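Hi U.,

Before I forget, here's the chain from the pilot set. I'm dumping it here mostly so it's searchable later in email.
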Amino acid sequence: MIGSALLSMLVTQAAVVAAFLAVPVVAPQLALSVGISAQTVGYFTSFVFIGAVFAAQFAPRLIARFGPVRASQLTCMFAAAGVLLAALGSLPALVLSAILIGLAYAPGNPASSVLLARVTPPERRGIVFSVKQTAVPIGAACAGLLIPLVAGLSDWRVALLSAGAVATVVAIAVEPWRSRLDTIAPLTGARGEQPMRTVMADPALRRLAILAGGFAGIQFSTSAILVTFLVDSAGLALTLAGAVLTAAMVLSVGARMVLGFAADRFGAHRVLTAIAAVMTFAIVGCIACALAGDGAPVWATVAAAGVLATCAFSWNGVFLASVASAAAPGSIGGATAGSMTCVFAGGVLGPAAFSFASQLAGTYVAGFAVQLALAGVALAALAPGRRRKAEPA
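Structure:
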């Protein structure tokens, strides 16, 4: 039962992530075609999370109405529609595309948390949730590797259409599991849940949400800008820059599983603090490379950006397991949706602030300074305090 639940949630979320990141990966080519700066890709990511913030408020009701697997299938179809719109290559279509992909992105984690919390013993949630969250780097790795390849063999529009086709196929592929998994147990109270009220009423959930907002701002600004940063600053070809993103995502798959095991063994607070420290160090490295400009060795820029991307994509499983443990049994969907609202808020503000600061100052240094501030927000949430098993401090 755990295996089929885990696999169905993993593949649907990976397909949505791949569709989401397909646009940032082809940003250098798309920008030339549309006539905009490639740095503005951060705004696309922000529009994605505007849609996600809205959708997160309705995610518990969607899951209660259709079940977690059916809801996940719907997210794949919304993601496919979103990349189809992006392939039109106009600014209005890109905005609508981002919002549709945001609607797809929001319900995935609440759906998987509801399902996995029902089939996983509490003492194994760290590793199981972290394995499920490898969907994000798996999807990102596929986008970073395959999207530039398809774009090189054909063009960026075909690459986006391919991402939409994959999401559609995945939605169909999990149908045999749906009827069994969606009826494991009733979803009590989900229809009336107000996700943000659930989070704000509990100190442990509030701290987790603040932490996640800071981490998410770093994660999504990194995913939005990494390829473009490496092309502009290190002079890498698009395919090579995409390969760096892929390598970081592959590494983060292993990192998520190791961190999930470590959280079960040593506690989430220690694990999350270590992630924050390494991320801060990597951001400082990116700032140093951006300040050095052409004088920075290519390997140093690639290493700093790669470490940052790996860490930025490694925290989510420990976070979601902590939310599921902190929430009341009947409120896991609402607590996850509310906490993910703060993640999406970080996704709105982080990439937009990175792009705005970089464009205003004319250097990526300013954008990475924004990330450094977000790391400070995360560290503040991890400040010494009353420690419980379910919260990070």
